[in-house]
Amino acid sequence: MKLREVKEILDAEVIIGDDKLDMEVKTAFGADLMSDVLAFAKAGGLLLTGLTNEQVIRTADILDIAAIIMVRGKRPTAESMALARDLDIPILTTKYILFETAGRLYTKGIVGCLDKVDAPSGHN
Amino acid sequence: MHPVDITEKNNYQRSFYVEGGNFTYAGIVSTSIKSILKKMDLPVDLVRKSAIVSYESEINIVSYAKKGVIKLTIDSRTIQIEAIDEGPGIPDIELAMQAGYSTADQRIREMGFGAGMGLSNIKRYADVFDLTSEVGKGTYLKMIINRI
Amino acid sequence: MDIETIVKELNLKVRAAGTNLRKNISGGYTGDLLSDVMANSQEGDIWITRQVHQNIVAVASLKDHAGIIIVNSCEPAKDTIEKAAQENIPVMVSDLSAFELTGKIYNLLGKKDR
Ligand SMILES: Nc1ncnc2c1ncn2[C@@H]1O[C@H](COP(=O)(O)OP(=O)(O)OP(=O)(O)O)[C@@H](O)[C@H]1O
Ligand SMILES: [Mg+2]
């Protein structure tokens, strides 16, 4: 689906990336722990998170995440916004909690993306 | 950043300074490393693995150490990333490696770090993972991603 | 919908059962920051998280959650299981990601049209 539809499904506001709404997205990953995102999220998907700091933007850049959706009405800090502009990463914000956000997108056909390198046992 | 010549992809070395405690720039080194590897046209999965292990180790230096250096060395067979810091060191490496173990403070946690997953992530992505540490002095982490 | 039903539907592995798995689930909350979950989740929520630390049990207990599901096949720490038994909080493990598990539970709870 297009990022534009994601915006509609989530009743979201586009903070950065108005020109990117025709981008295609198929997968999403939801987390508030960056190491979790770094362990599992695939390139080209959406990142759904309640975090707003610069590390979220950096993590998205490292992983080639297509766009960041901030949940619970969270907005990027000024520094995050500058960095996201710099790195060209779209940010949308929705008032829904992560549970509702993921539920709505999943219902409309966005799929999860566990990039299983191997079984994540505790310590190996 | 100085321009990268694609012919350097079999022979390249560069060191980056990392400041402890400064989260404003945390991750900037790994962003640079990623863009260097991309410019060298290395396979995307190798670029991704390298960027992830570099980023996790950079965040650890910023989170726990006074200062450090990240050294990128590329030859025809491997991408090697070394994270060397001056800091408190790790008293019990086996414990630190356990998924879920973390000494991160509230500030680090609010940023989404401190889940105690970083080192196990690195171990999972790197073909060679070599961690040594001296308490009161610092930590040395060598990570190698094989190109072939 | 009770816990037992979603355990069956979604193939969850039960790590701590509490006294019974018949607890009713009234909603869901997905999140990994304990302060956020403390502030924003509701009584009766099933909590979906990647955290494995024993502190999750304290949060779930304080907020009267129906239970906790840990995602990405990650196992709860040993003291998490012990504490969950003490506090009577069901803890389950799923091999799905938080996104996918949330999507499935969202649909099971029948919130499609909201
Ligand atoms: N460079 C370092 N110097 C001193 N201690 C370190 C260093 N790197 C890691 N540690 C110790 O090892 C623990 C585990 O590190 P790891 O990267 O696995 O998890 P984390 O940093 O706590 O959380 P996460 O990486 O998931 O955000 C840390 O909490 C810290 O106590
Ligand atoms: Mg770490």
Overall mean pLDDT of chain A: 92
CATH superfamily of chain A: HprK N-terminal domain-like
> CATH superfamily assignment of chain B?
Histidine kinase-like ATPase, C-terminal domain
Give a count of the beta strands of chain A, DSSP E runs of length 2 or more. 6
Please tally the helical runs of chain A, counting DSSP H or I stretches of 4 or more residues: 5
The number of distinct structural domains of chain A comes to 1
Uncertain stretches of 5 or more adjacent residues of chain A = 117-124
Low-confidence stretches of chain B: none
Strand percent estimate of chain B:
25-35%
Number of strands of chain B: 5
**How are strands sequenced across the largest beta sheet of chain B?**
1-2-3-5-4
CATH architecture of chain B: 2-Layer Sandwich
- What characteristic shape of chain B results from the CA principal axes? globular
Helix residue percentage of chain A: 25-40%
Classify the secondary structure makeup of chain A into a structural class. alpha/beta
Number of domains of chain B: 1
Any descriptors?
heterotrimer; B: about 150 residues; alpha+beta; Heat Shock Protein 90; 5-stranded antiparallel β-sheet; 5 helices; C: about 110 residues; alpha/beta; Udp-n-acetylmuramoylalanyl-d-glutamate--2,6- Diaminopimelate Ligase, Chain: A, domain 1; 5-stranded mixed β-sheet; 5 strands; globular; binds adenosine-5'-triphosphate; binds magnesium ion
